[in-house]
Amino acid sequence: MQSIQANNYKVHFNQNAYEALNIHLKENKYSNLFIIVDNETNEHCLPIFLPLLETDLTIEIIEFESGEVNKNIETCIEIWNVLTELGADRKSLVINLGGGVVTDLGGFVASTFKRGVDFINIPTTLLSMVDASVGGKTGVDLGNLKNQIGVINVPQMVLIDTEYLNTLPQSEMRSGLAEMLKHGLIYDSAYWKQFLDLKAIDFADFDALIYRSVEIKNEIVVQDPTEKNIRKALNFGHTLGHAIESYFLESETKKTLLHGEAIAIGMILESYISLHKGLITANEYAEIKTAIKSIYEDVKVEENDIDPILELLIHDKKNEYGLIQFALIEGIGKIKINQSVENKLILDAFQDYKS
């Protein structure tokens, strides 16, 4: 597969990825190499990766506990301390091997340590391959608020090897699929149509679907790297989805949702809002709702859950001048950003989801 040119870095695929990495290591005089993993990728992915690495550099592995609950500044402090103790300097290289939590947090750690050291992302989940590792967003959660602390800073390269997907449970594959569905809904109706019958998908060709998803995200990001305009399109499903994800993460009585599970709900809700703002047709909404619900189980949202979810919208990073801003679809394959939505319509969307 041909590499994709992003803003000041490339996304390399499968075997080409390791060739590009090893050339990069030979051409750059790094002092040492730190690989950040969580306990899952340390066990399942690091044994795949290390034999493919060609370097004489001293390699140190830094592991933290997996899960969104550990994507916080406390984990960063622990890693910064370890880097300091192990003699990391401005010429060190950090490789983030893992899912979105690892690439987000590891990218932030590298971007801020000694005011920034080089880093490379190697996503190992479907979600991080098509979303988290591409685009330069790094960061951590603040309490239960998603990605409140962070910087936009691009890696030296992103390496996508779909071999790592064989280490994932089906739930993680479904989680990543939500972002692929989103890319179709906001940008490419033909791509969306490919997912309407999952049974018809030839998963031998799944690499091509991943490639197109990365391509779509990259085409949007190169136009607007710092999210002042069209990049906001990528937040479709995320305004309500992130609030739901944060609420379920904080609740002691709710089962924590995977990112894609929450975004799937958000896409249905925000498609309903798009319908009632006259942006999509009833047939388009029915198609979206049916397709998403055929993949993701319904999540029980009680009446007393809705108000605290809505309160979390206040902290959404897209808000401007105190106004909550939505990215809504304007027909399948098109987007309309900076849309204000009244609370009653949001409440109606929740009622429709539950019906």
TrEMBL record:
Q: Which residues form the 3-dehydroquinate synthase N-terminal domain?
A: 62-174
Q: Which GO terms describe its biological process?
A: aromatic amino acid family biosynthetic process; chorismate biosynthetic process
Annotated EC: 4.2.3.4
InterPro entries per record:
Dehydroquinate_synthase, DHQ_synth_AroB, DHQ_synth_fam, DHQS/DOIS_N, DHQS_C
Q: Which GO terms describe its molecular function?
A: 3-dehydroquinate synthase activity; metal ion binding; nucleotide binding
Domain 3-dehydroquinate synthase C-terminal residues, every copy = 176-319
What cofactor is this protein dependent on? NAD(+); Co(2+); Zn(2+)
Assigned keywords, A-Z: Cobalt, Lyase, Metal-binding, NAD, Nucleotide-binding, Zinc
Q: What job does this protein perform? A: Catalyzes the conversion of 3-deoxy-D-arabino-heptulosonate 7-phosphate (DAHP) to dehydroquinate (DHQ).
| Protein's name according to its UniProt entry | 3-dehydroquinate synthase
Q: Which organism is it from?
A: Flavobacterium pectinovorum
- Source organism lineage? Bacteria, Pseudomonadati, Bacteroidota, Flavobacteriia, Flavobacteriales
